[in-house]
Specification:
Its main location: membrane. The protein is mostly helical. The longest helix is centred in the first third of the chain and has 30 residues, at about 30-60. It is about 65% helix and about 5% strand.
Length: about 230
């Protein structure tokens, strides 16, 4: 089940087109590689679990030992990844900022990923990555003689033009009726608010993997003799 969850998360990162992940994966090869790694780890975990079930039912020690070894390698890989993410968080934050700045510069309002970003700005009531100033480098806004701004940044509490969901809107004055908070602040607030849940899920998966390793070794020791004739041939 845990392997299926991990593989499912990797597939979601690759296939999902309705979330913030869509915006990042179009420009970040690191995210794509990480997603494929998750799919591989999840698939391997499911395969090894299936083989361990056969080993447990028919008391085949080599399959139980193989399951223990694979779980140990997966657990080491997960801990290593967590440590790298923690110590490289500033580098990851910088990479995300670079990706988002490139994305905002080329924004036109017609792509699916751009509609997702519009939805995020509307839902989180934010504008730009670090603030509305990120949009000043947008090609269309920069080359226009009008006061243009992203429609999804529109702050309804400020008087101005009608609210639109996507694309660029024209402001009546130089003072743009937009949110002043950058979306990175909203994302960080969400992560801090759900920190306990995220940590709990990660610890829970690690505990289950440790239990699987312990139980596989206990069963492996209790098997006195390997009898491969017990393994079904079909």
């Amino acid at each position: 089940i845990c392997g299926g969850v991990i593989m499912g998360f990797g597939l979601w990162v690759i296939l999902d087109s309705q979330s913030f992940i869509t915006v990042l994966q179009e420009s970040s090869t690191t995210l794509k590689v990480g997603a494929y790694i998750l799919i591989g780890i999840g698939s391997l975990s499911m395969l090894m679990s299936f083989l361990s079930c056969i080993g447990a039912i028919y008391e085949v020690r080599c399959l139980l030992g193989l399951y223990f070894t694979c779980l140990l390698l997966i657990l080491i890989a997960q801990v290593t990844a967590a440590v790298l993410i923690y110590f490289q968080r500033d580098l990851l934050k910088h990479e995300m900022s670079t990706i988002m700045n490139k994305f905002l510069v080329s924004y036109t309002g017609h792509k699916t990923s751009e509609h997702v970003w519009d939805y995020i700005q509307i839902g989180m009531k934010c504008c730009g990555w670090t603030g509305p100033s990120n949009w000043t480098e947008n090609v269309q806004i920069k080359n226009s003689s009008k006061y243009l701004y992203p429609c999804s940044c529109r702050n309804e509490s400020i008087s101005g033009t009608d609210v639109e969901a996507t694309g660029l809107c024209e402001a009546l004055t130089e003072e743009l009726p937009v949110f002043t908070t950058g979306c990175i602040s909203s994302v960080e607030d969400w992560l801090h608010g759900n920190y306990g849940v995220i940590l709990g899920v990660c610890v829970g998966i690690a505990v289950i993997e440790l239990l699987g390793m312990i139980l596989s070794m206990c069963l492996c020791k209790s098997v006195q003799q390997e009898d491969y004739t017990k393994v079904p041939k079909y």
